[in-house]
Amino acid sequence: MHFFYYLLISLSTLGYGFFLNNTLKLDSKNLGIIGFFGIFFLILLSYVSSFFIAHGYLFNSLILIIGLIFLSFFLKKKLSKKKGHNNFFYYFFSLIYIYFKWKKP
Fold this sequence. Notes:
- The chain is mostly helical and 105 residues long.
- It has one domain.
- 76% of the residues lie in helices and 0% in strands.
- The longest helix has 25 residues, at 57-81.
- It is elongated and about 75 Å long.
- The chain starts with a helix and ends with a helix.
- The mean pLDDT is 86.
């Protein structure tokens, strides 16, 4: 169960990192750097919000859920940009043709 919590917290931190990366237009593709951006953002959020709100179960759950929403938003955005290879059959048609026409012993 602890592994599941660790995974959720890590993914939420990456979500905040993607949010900070795209908001500040840093354009980093390295997940380690994006993770550090997320940790930096969460530390700043923690310092600022501790003056106004007690950090309890509800606050931490809300922060976790918002981070996961950010992650799903940016993953959906990234996956929608990836399209299939438009020239697939031009490159691989000859290989497919040879494969199907080749007589197997």
